[in-house]
Amino acid sequence: MIWRQWGRELVLISQHDHSRLSGEMARRVGNGMFAPPSPFESVVLAIADHDCGWAEQDLQPAIDLRGQPTHVFEADVLTSIAAWEKSVEQVAARDLYAGLLVSLHTMALAGHAAARQPEPDDEFARQRVFRVRRFMHRQIEVQEDLRRRLDMRTDLPLRGGLAEQGRAAEEDLLRANFFLLELLDQLSLNLCFGRLVFHRIEMLYPRPGEGPMSARLGGDVESGMTLDPWPFNCERLELDVPARRIGAGPYRDVATLWTACENGASCTVRVVLRPNGS
Q1: 1, 59, 139, 147: which could form a disulfide with 152 (CB 3.0–4.6 Å)?
Q2: Each residue of 134-186: pLDDT tens digit?
Q3: Whole-model pTM?
Q4: 29 is in which domain, residue-wise?
Q5: Which stretches of the chain are DSSP H helices?
Q6: How many domains does the chain have?
Q7: Cα separation of 107 and 113, whole Å?
């Protein structure tokens, strides 16, 4: 769940609609500096559906201590793991290469989550850390299986599921596609939240085997978010994201919040992205 305040209302955007926005941007990648995604439909599918496993959680979000719905950065790590598992399974069932990319993405998210977990001091905390690590190990197994089914190499040393740049052309392509997913995921989160959650992305490969370079994100929701360098085949992006409006709350309990979410009015959020300096 992503939400932003709009007067006396909250505007809710589901995780899957956020990832679909990422996919719409992926379809527009490619210019004199940036190569388009390849294999095109597989990469676009991975980027568009990398959060498809969040559907159930977004229908019935948790509630925080202020009586507001929790957003994705506040989600309990066990809730996240369940959603990540579903995302990998659902995408891999449709396209093996797309599934490999989503598995790499969720494993990276789990690694960040593991780094943020406090030192376990009781059995409950130890179980949480164990579940995160078990998920990461499971994704390594999933990726090895997908690599075999895709006739990709399994004999190269990997870090985070990726081979060192320059070891093989297909590995350089996978690396470029993975970091494109990361860029568009974080860019879409900025646009959906309507604020700069991320200011800079360090790893971006304009073409397989080239780079990396960094990307700078700026601007605001009023004037339009900005990006430098510009990877798209158009002068600016203006896209609509499905959303739902509910009262700003606070809500007294989770059941009341769920009812509000179910009965909220449908709307759209227009997001604007332009090159830095334009």
Answers
A1: 147
A2: 999 999 999 999 999 999 999 999 999 999 999 999 999 999 999 999 999 99
A3: 0.94
A4: 2-275
A5: 15-26, 40-48, 55-59, 77-94, 96-116, 123-149, 169-193, 254-263
A6: 1
A7: 10
